[in-house]
Design brief:
With 363 residues, this protein is an alpha/beta fold. It is 45% helix and 17% strand. It folds into two domains: 177 residues, Rossmann fold; 173 residues, Rossmann fold, CATH 3.40.50. It is built from 15 helices and 13 strands. Helix 5 links the parallel strand 5 and strand 6.
Amino acid sequence: MKAGKGTVLIASGASGGHLFPALAVAKVIEQQGYKVRFVLGGAKFADVVQRAGMDYVRLPAAAFNDRDALRLLWAGFNLMRGFARALKLMLRERPAVVFGNGGYASVAVILAARVLGVPAVIHSMDVLPGRANMLLARFADVVILNFEESRKYLRHVRGRVLVGGMPLREDVLAAAKVRREKGEFFRLLVMGGSQGAKILSEVVPEMVALMSPEERKELVVVQQVRADAAARVAEHYAKLGLGGFEVASFFVDVPMRYVAADVLIGRSGIGTVMEAAVLGLPAIYVPLELADGHQKLNAGLAEAAGAAVVVEQPYFTPASLLVHVRALRNDPARVEAMGVAGKKMAKPGATEAVAEMVLEAAR
């Protein structure tokens, strides 16, 4: 697309949780007549950007979340190289605005924008802003938050702070309009994130084994696992006399899997939390235990809204999980209320809202 109104540089790609919301925003910005170019930290996710039909450039980048001194030095060296290349890129492209949505891939680009006086916007999606956004909030002209609750974590902010919500993929928003049909089976969807959580592939099958034969006959389990665990988990379920099961390391149609499910069991990355919310899918979250605790905060917000149950990892056992699953299975009214609470928590118009905030900074 020709840059009729100018170019927007989008720095993203530290993870799929960063990249997919950025792609959703990019499509809206393109529709407004701007040229969009992604800036990626290395080659990761370049194929995803290509499949989306977006142009991109790669900069050297490395994470600073390593305790090894040599790796930290290497990360610092790559940041300087990335910063120098980002300066050259902006002098060549003359972007109307730069947009970063977290991760180390965005640091050099936002800092270069600040030096050159290019409007810079960042978006923080987790309740607790990540390290990169904590740093970049000191330099950005606009900080967009997913949640109002995140304001208290940003003590040093240079520009305006706005709440725009979480941009979601088009297929997720389309699935949210599909009516969920009540069936004869109780359907569990188990999602372990992009790599498949090991603990889920261990605890959930054992939980199912604790059920009575009658309960298992009325249960369908659809579970995403690590590739090396798929055969073991499938063999386990095959022996239990379930109403049905499917085990895979990757599902291409995740939004429709959400629609078909009665309850989700999974980690609480912000993408999962907000997708389940907009689809009205009740969840049992097992937050990944990270040093900053951001998954625990994400899950806690969903629980406070009435959309989820949180089971911290030390207490996530087959027996404890069975208690929660039975409680939901035997209380359809509660399940329905949790779905309604999730939809109230979600912001279906967030993609357009965030895109407009970015373009307003450009104007």
